[in-house]
């Protein structure tokens, strides 16, 4: 028996965007890595490192959209595998933090060294990388607002786009001044930006995994709206959380006056959850005031 949660989700809708971006970034990563090693540019190497993280993150995001839509044959995943997309976003966070740390360590190690940087490859490869990243951004932007999985990939590419800009700027400054410190300084700036974006995305991932109330939805407002349903006298044991992007879930107990039409109360409450809060999966338990079952629960 499956879980019954087999309908479409935001990540699957935008899978083609992830696949196209993955192909572009993977091809360019090889080019940039070779150029970074031959030119000696830390800014270029840092951008190549972040590009490698992009390849892994985008690949994981693509796989996650497929896993999320896979039917459950075990009968144990009652919510399906939709959380796979959230875990992929978590992987993107870890990769971004790792890349930022690596860049920072390499920059510190270079302090005091007279590194020789070939600016020609920096400018050429940085410019090509900027074009590739802008195309990838255009592909992913359409799904970033609907899927946390796509948003994680999008933020990866945003950071990498900044990295490409940094490589070009570093190349120009090093060529103009002959000072390789510009290369190191811009590499550190890229690392700082990547770290900040990782923290912001990580907070969103933890909010979902921690089953907090969805952004923009106040549990107090939900309680008030349900309490306003005719014949409802009390609302308790309310829980609202996000399963994955675009899929919010809720449970609640509705106490009703004796003699109330339970079917009418249930239908009205479901309409409130769907129309006012966008929650299609709301499990609502209707209890008459004379029912004392909830008093026997232990938590």
Spell out the blueprint of helices and strands:
Elements: H1 10-13, H2 15-39, H3 42-68, H4 84-110, H5 119-144, H6 148-177, H7 181-209, H8 219-227, E1 232-244, E2 247-256, H9 262-277, E3 281-288
Parallel strand pairs: 2-3
Antiparallel strand pairs: 1-2
Helix pairs in contact: 2-3, 2-5, 3-4, 3-6, 3-7, 4-6, 4-7, 5-6, 6-7
GO molecular function, one term: zinc ion transmembrane transporter activity
Pfam family, one: Cation_efflux
Subcellular location: Membrane
In short:
This protein is mainly alpha-helical.
Q: How do the strands line up in the largest sheet?
A: 1-2-3
CATH superfamily grouping of the largest domain: Cation efflux protein transmembrane domain
Supply the helix-strand structural class: mainly alpha
Per DSSP, the total helix count is: 9
CATH architecture of the largest domain: Up-down Bundle
Question: What is the rounded Rg?
Answer: 25 Å
Mean model confidence by pLDDT: 81
Distance between the termini: 30 Å
| Fraction of residues in β-strands | 5-15%
Low-confidence regions: 1-8
Helix content percent band: 55-70%
- Judging from the principal axes of the Cα atoms, what is the shape? elongated
CATH class of the largest domain reads Mainly Alpha
Report the strand count. Answer: 3
CATH topology of the largest domain: Alpha-lytic protease prodomain-like
- Number of discrete domains: 2
The main pleated sheet reads as: 3 strands, mixed
Name the helix and strand elements from N-terminus to C-terminus, one letter apiece: HHHHHHHHEEHE
Organism: Knoellia aerolata DSM 18566
GO cellular component, one term: plasma membrane
Family: Belongs to the cation diffusion facilitator (CDF) transporter (TC 2.A.4) family. SLC30A subfamily.
Subcellular location: Membrane
């Amino acid at each position: 028996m499956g879980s019954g949660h087999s309908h479409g989700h935001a990540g699957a809708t935008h899978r083609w965007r992830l696949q196209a971006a993955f192909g572009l970034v993977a091809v360019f990563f090889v080019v940039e890595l070779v150029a970074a090693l031959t030119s000696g540019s830390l800014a270029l190497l840092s951008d190549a490192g972040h590009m490698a993280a992009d390849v892994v993150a985008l690949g994981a995001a693509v796989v996650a959209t497929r896993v999320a839509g896979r039917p459950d044959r075990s009968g144990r995943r009652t919510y399906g595998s939709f959380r796979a997309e959230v875990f992929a976003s978590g992987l993107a966070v870890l990769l971004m933090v790792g890349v930022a740390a690596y860049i920072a360590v390499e920059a510190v190690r270079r302090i005091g060294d007279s590194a020789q940087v070939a600016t020609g490859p920096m400018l050429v490869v940085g410019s090509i990388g900027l074009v590739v990243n802008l195309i990838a951004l255009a592909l992913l932007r359409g799904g970033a607002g609907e899927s946390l999985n796509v948003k994680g990939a999008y933020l990866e590419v945003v950071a990498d786009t900044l990295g490409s800009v940094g490589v070009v700027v570093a190349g120009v400054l090093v060529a103009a001044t002959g000072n390789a410190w510009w290369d190191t300084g811009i590499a550190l700036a890229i690392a700082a930006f990547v770290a900040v974006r990782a923290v912001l995305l990580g907070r969103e991932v933890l909010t979902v995994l921690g089953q907090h109330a969805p952004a923009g939805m106040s549990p107090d407002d939900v309680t008030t709206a349900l309490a306003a349903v005719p014949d409802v006298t009390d609302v308790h044991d309310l829980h609202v959380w996000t399963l994955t992007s675009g899929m919010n879930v809720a449970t609640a107990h509705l106490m009703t006056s004796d003699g109330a039409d339970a079917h009418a109360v249930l239908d009205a409450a479901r309409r409130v959850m769907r129309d006012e809060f966008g929650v299609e999966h709301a499990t609502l338990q209707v209890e008459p005031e004379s029912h004392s079952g909830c008093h026997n629960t232990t938590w």
